[in-house]
Amino acid sequence: QKEVEQDPGPLSVPEGAIVSLNCTYSNSAFQYFMWYRQYSRKGPELLMYTYSSGNKEDGRFTAQVDKSSKYISLFIRDSQPSDSATYLCASYDMRFGAGTRLTVKP
Amino acid sequence: NAGVMQNPRHLVRRRGQEARLRCSPMKGHSHVYWYRQLPEEGLKFMVYLQKENIIDESGMPKERFSAEFPKEGPSILRIQQVVRGDSAAYFCASSIGQGHQPQHFGDGTRLSIL
């Protein structure tokens, strides 16, 4: 079993939709998680990180960690075509999920 | 540009040749990490270096791969006697602190083996 699992998608939504991206992890010692956004032919860009259970909000993005179910989520409100990218979750020791490819259609 | 710089962006090698990938970390960062990304797969950690030291190479293949981060100059990922399976995007990241702090990535080197 991989330590961080992520549904690779692809996920396609209309502009303005709320997007939910999810990962699960297996190691309960993980305390710190990150979300990266990767555009085609580019390196991953740190989007958000969170240290503990609960929510962290940054503009249209909200990161959520549920330690009881070992679930990590990233929500994007009012999605835009410019949000079209691959989103990767990662644990504190940089174990990455496979990435979810998101397309936001205008 | 104060970001992580990788070169070359694209590298083509024939089987059996050597590939050298270079990475200059962000200014002020002394920790460098190398990752490999295959199509439709996530990033796989390879090695973590500080200046003149390899801290964690648990993700490096045991043969043909090596990495260094000298006192002066960029970090180098070296692949000897390349094979078709080495074709991938190789990303470098750097961080300011110890361990696995949030990292800043370069745009990668895309290695193609003929």
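qc> Strands of chain A lie at 4-6, 11-14, 19-25, 33-38, 45-50, 54-58, 61-66, 71-76, 85-91, 100-105.
qc> done
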